[in-house]
Amino acid sequence: MTHNLNALRTIAAGLAICFGGIAQGSAQIRLQGKISTIGVINMPSQSGLHQYTHIWAFSPPNSGNDNSWFTNNVISGNASIDGVSLLEAWSSIETTQPTTTPCVTSDTCQRDPGLMEMYHSYNWFTYDSTASTSPVWQWLQLSEKKVNLLITGTNPGMLNASTPYYVTSPWWYNQFNPQEQDVINSYNNACGLNQWTGTTSTSISYSGGTMTVTSTNCCSASDQSATIQDQDMVWVTATPSACGTNATGAHASVSGGSTNTFSYTPNASGTCSAPSSVTFISPSESWPVPYEYPYMNALKAFWAAVVAHYGPNFKLPAGIGPNYYPQLYYFRFGGSAGSEWYPYCTSSLSSLPNGYGYTKSAWLNYYQQMGNYLQSLGPPWKIIHSINAAESSPVDYGYATQEAAYAVGWSNAFGVRDGFGSQGLSASDYVNCVTNSCTPACTTGGAHCAASNWYPLFGQYSALGVPLELQPESLSYPGDLDCSNPTCGTGNGKYSGDLPTFLNPFATAQGTTDVEIYWRDLSLAYDGSSYCALNSQINPASCLVGSSISTGGQIVSPGSQFNFFWGSHTPPPQGVGQGTTAPYCNGTPPQSGAIGNCQYSNNIDAAHGQH
After folding, report:
1. Which of 116-120, 195-199, 359-363, 550-554 has the lowest mean pLDDT?
2. Distance CA 431, CA 148 (A)
């Protein structure tokens, strides 16, 4: 009798996925003889505890001092951090528009599921790189750690750098029926969201009925990293207003090879003369409506390429290096912004023509269709689906409730149920679900309760043994126990409140199996020397320049960083970071003068493991 060794290894890897891996503190499992499994197997540990909570570092830095400090001082050798959750952008993998040239279906080529004569090509160089600053490989090199991949189709920020440029181009959407791919921004939809406000330029000219706008690195006839592509629809407000466009926008014209100039014909009423400024918005500065055919078809093909690429023989470099497949833990596929499913601007979309008008059922049908398609691909790892409530007032938690029900009905290639999670955890969830006993105790998903209704849904589905994931909605703010000062939320000056308030035991007691924590919060908890290099070891007043201070607005000032680490209450000052009192927070003496109370690292350590 002979055996296919590779097949046996694949089965063993699949069983490891089925059982969620052998985590620290887990019961030992011995498999002998012929084994057949259907559905989900729940195996309690020897201690009788049934749930293992993993801690993941969300989107750690790939290079620079922050990378070195995080790798050396925070994650390496830290048994409380299981690995990392990394974002992968669609546009970095599909770098050219589809063609009619047939090719063999693989991770580098997929036939379009709707336009059967079109073929998509994929280049994995960005994420398969084995350079020291690689976004994936360097974390796989931490052999004791796992890697989760969060597949991103649309970037939720001011510039959508994740959607390939062709998806919103007339060349692509004119091949569908209807010939339409709508986008949302602050010009053509008044939905109260301000991230899609466009770019302002004062370098403009008007001649022969054509406006010419110069803006650094804005334009290209083919490069998707540019803000504007040739023939993009653009929306322009101008001074004077007659130099702008009306609600239907205008097509941009970009000369071949241009990197900073585009032109358009004003179509607002009145006469354009002596223009002084324009603010333009392009599709890449907008949110593409994802349930429309052009976007959805292209996204399906990309998901198929992802499943093909990260299969049981995943190696770096491709086909050469060691097999890293066993280190891939779970995937999350985003159908909206980021790796989530948030339905933006629902009220503004209701009037879209050609059957694209938004309804709740249309959104849930899109969610279900994409989940069904993903399951049909046979993904060979754990899948966690994001659930998101809609932003209408009051918040409609019915979206998340239905999405969770869909999620646990899907399974991976080994028959293991998918799970779900929310990326909106904050201290306000604790306040509403525990302190205020919201309607009551968050059991019905009433207004102002747990983000996307995760709290009652976790309680409902935890007995199935499915993965249940949470991510704070933003960086934490030590000491803010109720999200009142500062308020919880996303964006500049907003946080998720005090980490111990929302993490352990609040989140862990509700059945949470996976928590993605912002890497800067993990640095605050575990890095005793570089998160805040103290300005004076005798009487510090600030962090030294060069410490790990956020760029991009999440830590509003170096002063806040200092207060988090050192403490602002006197006497004596007390922060939540590392301290010099033996045995120290994690057994390693921090820099001299650090007097943190270890509150963050202690809570994360307690959240990790069996519960």
Report:
1. 550-554
2. 30
> Which residues, in sequence order, are bridge partners of residue 205?
212
The span from the CA of 580 to the CA of 487, in Å, is 32
Q: Which residue has the tokens 């689906």?
A: 385
Query: How far apart (Å, rounded) are the C-alpha atoms in residues 547 and 532?
Result: 5
At 57, list the tokens: 């570092």
Planar angle of CA 345, 350, 356, nearest 5 degrees: 105
Provide the residue type at 524 as one letter: L
Do 422 and 400 touch, CB atoms closer than 8 A? yes
Three-state SS string across 323-346, please? ECHHHEEEEEECCCCECCCCCCCC
Q: Kindly report, residue by residue over 8-20, the tens digit of the pLDDT.
A: 334 444 444 444 4
CB 83 within 8 A of CB 149: no
* Exposure string over 376-413, b if 16+ CB within 10 A, otherwise e: ebebbbbbbbbbbbbbeeebbbebbbbbbebbbebbbb
Burial class, 48, CB count within 10 angstroms (exposed 0-12 / middle 13-18 / buried 19+): exposed
Extended beta strands in 82-189, E state = 83-89, 109-111, 119-121, 146-152, 183-184
Distance CA 607, CA 516 (A): 12
Using an 8 Å Cβ cutoff, are 415 and 39 in contact?
Answer: yes
Helices assigned H by DSSP within 45-169: 64-70, 125-128, 137-140
State the alpha helices, DSSP H only, in 558-598: 558-565
Residue range 223-239, pLDDT digits in tens: 766 789 888 999 999 99
| pTM of the complete model | 0.89
Domain boundary assignment for the chain: 82-181+289-377, 199-281
Listed in sequence order, the residues at least 6 apart from 34 whose beta carbon sits closer than 8 Å to its beta carbon are: none
d(CA 82, CA 178) in angstroms, rounded, equals: 47
Query: Is residue 133 a contact partner of residue 149, using CB atoms and an 8 Å limit?
Result: no
DSSP characters for 10-27? HHHHHHHHHTT---TTPP
Strand 119-121 relative to strand 109-111: parallel, antiparallel, unpaired?
antiparallel
Per DSSP, which regions of 4-90 are E strands? 52-58, 83-89
| 552 contact partners, CB below 8 Å, separation of at least 6 | none
First-residue to last-residue Cα distance in the chain: 44
User: Mind listing the pLDDT tens digit for each residue in 76-109?
Assistant: 999 999 999 999 999 999 999 999 999 999 999 9
C-alpha 435/C-alpha 414 separation (Å) is: 41
Dihedrals φ, ψ of 432, to 5°? -75, -35
